[in-house]
Amino acid sequence: MNNIFKRILNWFNRLAYPKKFNVIAVIFILPIIGFLPLVSDQNTHIDRYGRRELFGTLYLRPLWQLTEDIQALEIVHLKYTAGEAPFSDVEAAKSVIEGDFEEWARIQNNEILAIPLKNEADAIQAEWLELKSAIESSDTASIETNQPTIYKSIHELVVLVGDYSFLILDPDLDTYYMMDIVLLELPENQELFFQAHKLATGIAQNQFVSTQDQVQLAILLSQIQTNVSNIDRDMKIALENNRAGDMATLVSTPFQEYQSAVQTFADSINADLANPSLAQSIEVESLYSEVRHANTAFYSAASEALEIGISARVNVLILRFYFAGLIALLGAAAAFVVGQAVMQAISKPLVQLAEATQLIATGDLTTRIVLENKEDELGLVANAFNQMIGELEAERTALVARTRDLENANRQNEKRARDLQSISEISRAITTEKNLGSLLPLITRLISEKFNYYHIGIFLVDDNRRSAVLHASNSVGGQRMLARGHRLEFGRGVVGNVAATGIPRIALDVGADPVFFNNPDLPNTRSEISLPLQVSDDIIGVLDAQSIELDAFKEEDIEVLSTLADQVAISIQNARLFEITQKLLEEAQRTSGFYLQDSWRTLKSQSKLLGYQVSGNILKPLDQFTDSVLIAKVSSTGETVVEHGEGTNLTVPIRLAGNIVGVVSIRSPEEHDWEKDVADIVQAIADRLSLALESATLLEATQKRSEIERLTAGITGKIGSTTQIDSILRTAAEELSRALGGSDVLVQIQSDATEENTEIMTGMA
């Protein structure tokens, strides 16, 4: 066995590589070819006993419905002929049949049986057109001729469908017997019911039952009951062999209803015909309608059960098909194992070739590929490799140059990333500065530090928009320029040109740039870039950067530094808006203070209140002013003072609208080392007193103005303007007395309203 294998292997080695690969391909293909008949057989079963039977089941349904509706048309036409129905009922029945033909045409467009049965379908369509024409022209002879013809054609087409769709040859017991019911027995009963109905209708109309009529009805009913018995037998066999058990769910109830309707139909007709004198009482229409409905319902259920059974078989056949394919794949896998053994004969010289190429890949260009057989395909490949070795050096040189280019690109990307990081840091730093005078120098310093530029200058456009004025710089020369108020008119120099046009400009060599302004304060400048400071469409200034290196700026720097210039412009605009807001706020505060002071003077000039004094538990209003050096000192300095002498005195100032209007003085006959908590309590009460006085002053001034307006309108009345202030002073004295028990309290208001600083003096004696 081994000798045979070696001979085959030697023979294989002598083959050229295309032939070797052909042999391997044959090895792989043989298992697949061997299993092709099995796969083909499974596919045939799926087609015949799956798809074709399924489509045949679907194709039979419109034929059943068409037969039902043509029979209904015949019944309606007979009633119309007898004068029992209007012609509109005939037209309605024809419309239903036209709809049946449209549904049938739709199914024919989708089903695989449409082409083989096209001639028969066209013939039925033509026969219907003849029948319809005869009905419309009331041609009784043609109607009687065409009606049996179209019934016969439909029946023959049903038989052909059974043959073409392989329903007759169904291989499984459940679907075979269900097919027998759907294809043969139910259509036959459909015709028998119709014939029995026609005969019974004639008897009812003639009101006479002949012996021949009785015999014919007995034969028809006997055939119907025989078919029902056969259906019952077929049903039991089909359901017993239905493994899934899903057929019984569909057909059991409809079949019971069908049996009941058939039995009722037969019993009623037999009972009525037993007495010929009662022939006119036969309820033919209601009996036929019930049995027809049951017949149709059972047909639909049986047809659906047949469809489910066939679908289940299709699934099984598909699984078998997959199983056959799996076997074919396993055979191919076995062939692959054999092919691997064959490929070993090819792999050895390939390994030699791979080892040599690896040495070449490491840079050993002295390596040459040497094979024993130089005339086969691998030998030709080896020669080609040897020729390529000489070209590798040139490729290496090109690769090094390409690497250098990539390194330059990486450096540029890194520089761009650093620049963007610097811009981010500068933006965070300048956004917190709101003072324009501090912001501009900060910007120049940060840009110089982050980008290492020789000179940074920020120019702002003047109010006349004719020149750009230098407002900040980081360089020594820039400071000299600031000292003398350096400015550049629009269009002069790089800065003036950018201020006039709003277009960034780079001077790579200032000596060769005709626009550059030669500045003696910046003699070391070799290249310059100027960027507009722009808010919306308004140019507010220019950001100027200068370097001591030639070609220090690139075109790509414009995009990066423009982002920085936009941030600087926004920060400058925000600082300007902040200064304007601050000025407006201060002006509003001054106006509010003036109004409060004026209101206070007015109220004091109208008030005779002096204050309150609390001594022990006694509260009394003051009848004269009390003054002291300590109170005068606190009123003038606005500082809290503690004085020791005959007892201890703590004095705290009270402010109104930023002005000192009084003091709080606590006097104790004993020496005290006033704790901070006591001073805080007194200061808190003084602050509350200040706020209360301010609110009361504004309230009473507003009330007074409102009173004046009412008096002007002719309304009399009087406002006590001192009511709020009097209550505030009294409450302050009481709170202080309760907080500092054992001390005397004095609350006093100075009555001179013409002084610059009106005072409220609260003394505690």
Task: Give a concise summary.
Helices cover 68% and strands 11% of the residues. By secondary structure, the protein is of the alpha+beta class.
Mean pLDDT across every amino acid position: 77
The main sheet comes to: 7 strands, mixed
- Note the total helix count: 17
- Estimate what percentage of residues fall within beta strands: 5-15%
Computed Rg: 58 Å
The number of distinct β-strands equals: 13
Low-confidence stretches: 277-282, 714-721, 751-765
The chain-level structural class is alpha+beta
Helix content: 55-70%
Order of helix and strand elements from N to C terminus: HHHHHHHHHHHEEHEHEEEHEEHEEEHHEE
* Form type: flat
Strand order of the largest sheet: 8-7-12-13-11-10-9
Overall domain count: 4
Q: What is the distance, rounded to the nearest whole angstrom, between the alpha carbons of the first and last residues?
A: 134 Å
